[in-house]
Specification:
Blueprint lengths: L6 H18 L3 H9 L7 H13 L18 H11 L21 H13 L4 E4 L15 E5 L2 E12 L6 E7 L2 H5 L7 E7 L5 E4 L8 E12 L3 E2 L5 H37 L1 E2 L2 E2 L4 H30 L4 H26 L1 H4 L5 H9 L8 H13 L11
Parallel strand pairs: 1-4
Antiparallel strand pairs: 2-3, 3-7, 4-5, 5-8, 6-7, 9-10
Length: 393
């Protein structure tokens, strides 16, 4: 595995690092102040301004193929960029992106959904999770029944990221109940592109962090047969492809947060004096810093290994699950240690430490819980799909 960066790739990473430091981090104090008043930390106008400035510098559509006006960067470079973006709690993303499965759209769908989404004129959401089918995505009950040239969709989705702001959704529904009951979800679930004005509605869900998901309700929502994304009955594999991407990019962003948290804690430890000496000289503090540094380095290699395998076209599911599991558990351990180093100040909302404490907790739940990742990793090993020797064999 060769992770040597080209000169161009090093320049990209350096530019993103400088952009985060000079443009995004200065927004943090005001964002924290607003959030203490239960307001949005960064306004849509501020976010668009950041995206416009990045676009002017050529950063638009990081993973969007060049034929659609993007940069067409691979998974490894995208992961390195996410690490840099993760160094701020501001939820910045470059403009010009679209859900990876939207590129499966036909020509007509691309004109109505993909191209406007890349341009920033439309907003999508991915809807598979249900009140009774979270980690067990195969247990979804939302149905789509064929009625002539239309499909009638009924059901409820929950914890849908961006669901209250989206103007269209990629919703997954059972289109072959018999195969679904037989456990053949790979042939029974279909993805539909459904505009909000076709009848579905949403309700926001309040959470302990800044993540703002929503519930989506479909009551006899009618869509044409042409609303199917991809192939009828083949939606489950498409959904897993969407989820798999998050399983290496989410821990990449958490990795950036952990780097910043440890740097902040070390600076505090050097300056905080108790009983006549800086707490950085105390073994208890040193061990927390050392353990966190080891965890960060291990997570870095798990994330980059998973991304590298994606770039190589390998079956990367095992690597992605390992990165997601380790990233979630270690990031939560690290933020807890670094809050402890900061003492009472870490618990206040004057610093972003407690915000990260709340935000990183989500990493152990969405895009597959810790338990699901462990199940997947063990199953792959026990059934011979993966080896404890890793991808090197």
């Amino acid at each position: 595995m060769d992770l040597t960066l080209t000169d161009e790739e090093r320049e990209i990473r350096q530019w993103v690092r400088a952009f985060v430091t000079k443009e995004i981090m200065p927004l943090e104090p005001e964002a924290l102040s607003r959030e203490r008043k239960h307001e949005r930390g960064v306004t849509p106008e501020e976010m668009r301004d950041l995206q416009d400035r990045a676009k002017q510098a050529g950063f638009f559509g990081v993973q969007t193929p060049e034929e659609y006006g993007g940069m067409g960067l691979g998974a490894t470079m995208a992961a390195l960029i996410e690490i840099e973006l993760g160094r701020s709690f501001i939820p910045f993303r470059f403009a010009g992106e679209a859900d990876n499965i939207l590129f499966d759209a036909n020509e007509e769908q691309q004109a109505s959904y993909l191209v406007p989404t890349i341009a920033g004129d439309r907003r999508s959401c991915f809807a598979i999770t249900e009140p009774g089918a979270g980690s067990d995505a195969r247990a979804i009950r939302t149905s789509a029944v064929r009625d002539g040239d239309e499909w009638v969709i009924n059901g409820e989705k929950t914890f849908i990221t961006g669901g209250h702001e989206a103007d269209f959704t990629m919703v997954f529904a059972v289109t072959d109940p018999e195969k679904h009951r037989a456990g053949r979800s790979g042939e029974s679930v279909t993805c539909f592109l459904v505009d909000r004005d076709q009848g579905w509605y949403s309700e926001p869900i309040d959470t302990m962090g800044e993540w703002g998901p929503a519930s989506l309700v479909f009551n006899d929502v009618r869509v044409p047969h042409s609303a199917i994304l991809g192939e009828e009955g083949r939606g489950f594999a498409m959904a897993m492809r969407w989820i798999g991407k998050g399983r290496y990019l989410l821990p990449a962003r958490a990795l950036g947060a952990c780097e910043r948290l440890v740097e902040m804690a070390m600076e505090h430890a050097r300056n905080r004096v108790t009983f006549g000496q800086p707490i950085a000289e105390r073994q208890a503090i040193q061990w927390m810093v050392a353990d966190s540094a080891v965890d960060i380095e291990a997570l870095r290699w798990l994330v980059l290994s998973a991304a590298w395998q994606v770039d190589q076209g390998n079956d990367s599911r095992q690597a992605q699950s390992m990165a997601k599991l380790y990233g979630g558990t270690r990031a939560n351990e690290i933020v807890d240690r670094m809050l402890q180093v900061h003492g009472g100040m870490g618990y206040t909302r004057e610093l972003p430490v407690e915000r990260w404490y709340r935000e990183l907790r989500l990493l152990r739940i969405y895009e597959g819980t810790d338990e699901i990742q462990r199940r997947t990793i063990a199953r792959n090993l026990l059934q011979g799909y993966a080896s404890v020797r890793g991808h090197l064999g």
